UniProtKB/TrEMBL annotation:
Keyword set, alphabetical order: Amino-acid biosynthesis, Aminotransferase, Branched-chain amino acid biosynthesis, Pyridoxal phosphate, Transferase
GO cellular component, one term: cytosol
CDD domains assigned: D-AAT_like (cd01558)
GO molecular-function terms, A-Z: L-isoleucine-2-oxoglutarate transaminase activity; L-leucine-2-oxoglutarate transaminase activity; L-valine-2-oxoglutarate transaminase activity
Pfam family, one: Aminotran_4
Catalytic activity: L-valine + 2-oxoglutarate = 3-methyl-2-oxobutanoate + L-glutamate; L-isoleucine + 2-oxoglutarate = (S)-3-methyl-2-oxopentanoate + L-glutamate; L-leucine + 2-oxoglutarate = 4-methyl-2-oxopentanoate + L-glutamate
Cofactor: pyridoxal 5'-phosphate
InterPro entries named in the record: Aminotrans_IV, Aminotrans_IV_CS, Aminotransferase-like, BCAT-like_C, BCAT-like_N, Class-IV_PLP-Dep_Aminotrnsfr
Classification of source organism: Bacteria, Pseudomonadati, Pseudomonadota, Alphaproteobacteria, Rhodobacterales
General function of this protein: Acts on leucine, isoleucine and valine.
Descriptive protein name: Probable branched-chain-amino-acid aminotransferase
Transferase keyword on record: yes
């Protein structure tokens, strides 16, 4: 694999980052994951915009402008011959002279790393045909989940809790309401109404979420952006998650209880189809 690190395209074995990098020592960094369909980038504009916001919220400098960033993404797709897959991007506050909680001097160069993950068949995933199982867990993350930081230990633990319970993923619950999935936004459908938690500091503002809500409204669906409970979700007709890597993925079981008919619902399947069609068309 050819990867990108601080201005250079290198074989992955040769790419190096300092042990004093603040991403490594303090999880002081942000990231984005953009999907590739047909060798093109899905919603690059949305990801670039959220990246700029994450950087700003953390007072972090952008090492490249967004045009350069697009060019790096395209170069990596080409160099690695990616047809379907993902591009991971991470920017950290860089390597300080020593370990210190205080931020390093402002002229410390940020670290930027990008790599590709080839995933043939990403859009035609078997899981989308069967649906996935989720469990509910307590949301124990920090309070600024709207910033896409690399601090992902609790979501990793959540995936392991799901695995241990024989499920595929976990929905996190705070003060009785679902926030989101470990790496995705959560939705239910009841009597034709699409319900998903409103934006705020409690969840990541999913790029896929924004597109799916737009397509749902264009299809004349009623959309309610509000909190919902696990009990409400268990009584729903359908449920699904969204993310740049899963697109729209039906959820058919919650805490061992079947949702709807226990198979992907018609509305979820339709939204997945619309999302993939439209995003392929708009991909750059
Ligand atoms: N919520 C969380 C916690 C996530 O990690 C992700 C994916 N990174 C999402 C939602 C979905 O965001 P997007 O649609 O931009 O991939």
């Amino acid at each position: 694999r050819t990867v990108y690190v601080n201005g250079q395209y290198l074989p992955e074995e040769e790419a190096k980052v300092s042990i004093f990098d603040r991403g490594f020592l303090f999880a002081d960094g942000v990231y984005e994951v953009t999907s590739v369909l047909g060798g093109k980038l899905v919603d690059f504009g949305g990801h670039a915009k959220r990246l700029e916001r994450s950087l700003k919220e953390l007072d972090m400098a952008a090492p490249v402008d967004m045009d350069e960033l697009l060019e790096i993404h395209r170069q990596l797709v080409e160099k690695n011959g990616i047809d379907e897959g993902l591009i991971y991007l991470q920017i950290t506050r860089g390597a300080a002279a020593d370990r210190d909680f205080a931020f390093p001097p402002e002229d410390t160069p940020p670290t930027i790393v990008l790599f590709t993950q080839s995933k043939p068949g990403l859009a035609d995933s078997p899981a989308a045909r069967t649906g996935i199982k989720v469990i509910s867990i307590e949301d124990q993350r920090w309070g600024r989940r709207d910033i896409k930081t690399v601090q992902l230990l609790y979501p990793s633990m959540g995936k392991m809790m799901a695995k241990a319970a024989g499920a595929d993923d976990a929905w996190m619950v705070e003060d009785g309401f679902v926030t989101e999935g470990t790496s995705n936004n959560a939705y239910i459908i009841k009597n034709g109404t699409l319900i998903t938690r409103h934006l705020g500091n409690e969840i990541l503002h999913g790029i896929t979420r924004a597109a799916v809500l737009r397509f749902a409204r264009e299809a004349q669906m009623t959309v309610e952006e509000r909190p919902f409970t696990i009990d409400e979700a268990k009584e729903a007709d359908e449920a699904f998650i969204t993310s740049a890597s899963a697109f729209v993925m039906p959820v058919v079981e919650l805490d061992g209880q079947t949702i709807g008919a226990g198979a992907p619902g018609a509305v979820s399947a339709r939204l997945r189809e619309i999302y993939l069609d439209e995003m392929r068309k708009a991909a750059v």
